[in-house]
User: Which sequence fits this backbone?
């Protein structure tokens, strides 16, 4: 088994030499560098109200299906 120091050195060298941004981002999250990912977004009162209004509209059948919405958009765009 590789000694801890050797493993750390190998990992450090690989990190230094990689251009894989996705890997680096994942490592930063794993090591806790990405504090923003731990923050929970708090909705404003206006956002909460808008969400509640939207849910109420859906509950009352006041919505368009995807096909209906696409037809409306196409009509507005003159297609």
Assistant:
């Amino acid at each position: 088994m590789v000694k801890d120091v050797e493993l750390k050195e190998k990992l450090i060298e690989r990190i230094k030499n990689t251009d894989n941004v996705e890997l680096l981002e994942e490592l930063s999250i794993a090591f806790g560098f990405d504090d923003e990912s731990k923050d929970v977004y708090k909705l404003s009162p206006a956002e909460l109200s808008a969400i509640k209004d939207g849910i109420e509209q859906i509950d009352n059948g006041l919505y368009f299906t995807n096909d209906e919405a696409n037809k409306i958009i196409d009509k507005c765009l003159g297609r």
In short: Residues 24 and 63 are 42 Å apart (CA to CA).
